[in-house]
Specification:
This protein is about 75% helix and about 0% strand. By secondary structure, the protein is mainly α. Helix 2 packs antiparallel against helix 10, helix 6 packs across helix 7 and helix 7 packs across helix 10. The longest helix has about 35 residues. The relative contact order is 0.20. The chain has one domain.
């Protein structure tokens, strides 16, 4: 083990790490409640999606993420909604989801890139709140990585592998490498969103609910990821991540 992981951290840093652990282990709460309310119909609708739509989602996920990454370089530096909190992105996402679901599959396909851009912008704002340049390459690549951290309603190891891995830095990763790594997982996640919105009019309510779940989840994951990066800069990545893993493990024991 790297000896730096055993360096005592200040009480304030430990308090911040415990708070981030609570955020990560609790992030599924609101999202799961929304998706549970929508019911198992999502899985049934997912099976009924036309093959051409499934293929389009799978092949287009990477392009959608890349477009959001490049657009964020321009949009992220603008004060379109100055001095607003996370609620502004949430309201916009809910409205976008409702509009996307009102016409069923056709409008849902048009709406998804806008939702991804909104979530990306919300993550950039959180990066800025933690002292990072929201339009830097590193910040935007980190936002892409967060899209690979599981998703609302998933019960896989995406969160653990992304946030409890040995390193939280990107270590020279390129745009193409990050996208190729996360696109398959992201495609599977957004397929659920499309499935929830395929029923016209009724899909508007489902789209709003799913977008709430998506925005809430990824905002929480961004707070964890950028919070850890901030603490790692001040106290060392090994020490911070060792303490974070222990904090998450303790919470897992209490929740089990």
């Amino acid at each position: 083990m790297n000896q730096t992981s055993d360096i005592p951290l200040p009480d304030a840093a430990r308090g911040d790490i415990d708070a981030l652990a609570r955020r990560m282990t609790g992030a599924m709460g609101p999202a799961m409640r929304v998706l549970t309310y929508l019911g198992g119909g999502i899985e049934n609708r997912l099976e009924r999606l036309p093959d051409r739509v499934k293929d389009a989602i799978e092949s287009g996920a990477g392009a959608m993420l890349e477009q959001a990454y490049h657009a964020a370089r321009v949009i992220g530096g603008q004060s379109v909604v100055p001095k607003t909190g996370a609620w502004a992105h949430m309201v916009a996402a809910i409205g976008s989801g409702a509009a996307g679901g009102i016409g069923g599959l056709s409008t849902a396909l048009l709406e998804m890139p806008a939702t991804v851009a909104l979530i990306f912008g919300a993550m950039q704002k959180i990066a800025s709140e933690n002292g990072f340049d929201p339009v830097s390459e590193d910040t935007r690549l980190t936002c892409l990585e967060i899209f690979g951290a599981g998703g609302p309603g998933t019960r896989d190891d995406g969160v653990n592998s992304t946030f409890l891995g040995t390193r939280i830095g990107l270590n020279g990763s390129t745009l193409s490498a990050v996208i190729s790594r996360i696109a398959p997982r992201f495609a599977a996640i957004i397929s659920q969103k499309f499935a929830a919105q395929v029923v016209p009019v009724l899909g508007a309510a489902a789209g709003a609910g799913v977008n709430y779940a998506f925005m809430d989840y990824y905002q929480e994951m961004a707070r964890v990821r950028f919070g850890l990066k901030r603490l790692a800069q001040a106290h060392g990545e090994d020490a911070v991540m060792a303490a974070f893993r222990r904090a998450v493990s303790r919470r897992g024991d209490r929740l089990s």
